[in-house]
């Protein structure tokens, strides 16, 4: 099991230096550290060497690094997987290779926050059936500087095991994902979600948002949910969509629409 990190962690590959200079991440099914590794760390929860991480200079730019994280038979995610790659502003790609078992994870808050150079994210191998919180999971809001930061993220692939049935918090989940042109949320079960504040705010390239599967009966906070989505022409919702219990203040501020579309799911 890999260890957990906080938003202020500044050790191993979570130093500010490595967050700026690691350009790729690859998960492996072994914990061997090669002789050409620049630096390596025991990042296992029990500190017994079961999960090792190391960096190697990047082939194209020797001032940058490729990060590898490995364990025998693959890495098991910590229950608290929040901040795993938060503020890794140099990272362009993350390859999980079916070597990251997330089936026991319960928190994924800020997991990929402010990864400003990340272009695509394949989460098709993620099992999120135990996850209860996805606050700011893909957010491009920098808490330290209190401002939105640039995003290059164009695509997120969610697989059939990306299950949200126990998630209660999705606030800021996609905040500032300004280059995403589509989001397939057809597998999302939001029946236990209570907070959707800012969920899609700043998704400036989305032309439509399909929320046909969304059950919002327990949601109490929808403030600015679709704020600054100027290119949105349609938001489709199904029979379980309701705002009856929610604060909808500024829900559509600077959006291309002022209401959702029912009856077309």
Characterise this structure.
The chain is mainly beta. Helix content is 2%, strand content 20%. It contains one helix and 13 strands; from the N terminus they run αβββββββββββββ. It has a five-stranded mixed β-sheet. A two-stranded parallel ribbon has the order 5-7. A two-stranded parallel sheet has the order 8-11. The radius of gyration is 19 Å and the shape is globular. The termini are far apart. The model has no long low-confidence stretch (mean pLDDT 97).
Task: Please tell me the overall pLDDT.
Answer: 97
Please work out how many helical segments DSSP would assign.
1
Whole-number radius of gyration? Answer: 19 Å
Question: Structural class given helices, strands, pairing?
Answer: mainly beta
Q: Strand fraction band?
A: 15-25%
The helix-strand sequence is HEEEEEEEEEEEEE
């Amino acid at each position: 099991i890999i260890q957990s990190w906080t938003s202020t962690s500044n050790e191993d590959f979570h130093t500010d230096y490595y967050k700026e200079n690691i350009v790729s991440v690859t998960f492996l099914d072994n914990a061997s550290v090669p002789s050409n590794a620049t630096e390596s760390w025991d990042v296992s929860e029990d500190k017994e060497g079961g999960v090792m991480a190391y960096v190697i200079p990047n082939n194209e730019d020797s001032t940058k690094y490729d990060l590898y994280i490995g364990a025998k038979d693959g890495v098991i995610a910590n229950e608290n997987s929040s901040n795993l790659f938060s503020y890794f502003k140099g990272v362009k790609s993350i390859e999980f290779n079916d070597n990251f078992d997330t089936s026991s994870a319960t928190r994924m808050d800020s997991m990929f926050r402010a990864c400003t150079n990340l272009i695509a994210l394949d989460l098709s191998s993620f099992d999120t059936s135990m996850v209860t919180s996805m606050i700011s999971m893909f957010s491009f809001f920098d808490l330290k500087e209190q401002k939105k930061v640039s995003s290059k993220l164009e695509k997120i692939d969610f697989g059939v095991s990306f299950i949200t049935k126990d998630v209660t918090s999705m606030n800021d989940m996609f905040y500032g994902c300004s280059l995403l042109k589509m989001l397939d949320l057809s597998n999302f079960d939001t029946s236990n979600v209570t907070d959707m504040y800012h969920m899609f705010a700043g998704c400036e390239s989305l032309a439509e948002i399909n929320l046909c599967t969304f059950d919002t009966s327990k949601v109490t906070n929808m403030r600015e949910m679709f704020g600054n989505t100027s290119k949105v022409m349609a938001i489709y919702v199904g029979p379980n969509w309701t705002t009856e219990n929610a604060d909808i203040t500024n829900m559509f501020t600077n959006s291309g629409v002022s209401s959702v579309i029912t009856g077309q799911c």
